[in-house]
Amino acid sequence: MGILTSDNSRVCDTTGLKVCLQSEMLIKLNAVVAVVCLLIGVLAAFGLALTRWETIGLLDPLMYYRFTTVHGLNMLIFWILFMEMAILYFAGTVLLNNRNASSLLSWGQFGLMLIGMGMVNYSVFTGRADVMMTSYVPLRAEHEFYLGTILFAVGALLGTTNFFANLYVAKRDKTYKGSIPLVVFGALAAAIIAVFTILHGAVALVPTWLWSIGMMEAPDAGWYRLLWWGLGHPSQQINVCAMVAVWYLLGTLTVGAKPLNQAVCRTAFLLYILFINRASEHHLLVDPGLSAEHKMWNTSYALYLAVLASMIHGFTVPASLEVAQRKKGHGGLFGWLAKAPWGDPGFAALFVSLVIFGFGGGITGVTLGTHQINIVAHNTLRIPGHFHMTVAGGTSLAFMGLAYYVVPLIFRKEYSFRGLARIQPYIFGLGISIMAIGMTLAGSLGVPRRHPDIDFTDAAIKADLSAASPFMALVGIGGFIAATGALIFILLTVHAVFLGASNKGRAMTSWQKPEQDKLTRDLMSTNWNPEGAGLKPSGTSVLTLLLLAAFAIYYFANWKALADVWHVS
Amino acid sequence: MADQPHVAVTEGADDGPVHWLQKLLDNPWLLLFLGVVVPTLSYTVWGWVELVLMKKAELP
Ligand code: HEM
Ligand SMILES: [Cu+2]
Question: What is the ipTM of this complex?
Answer without folding.
Answer: 0.87
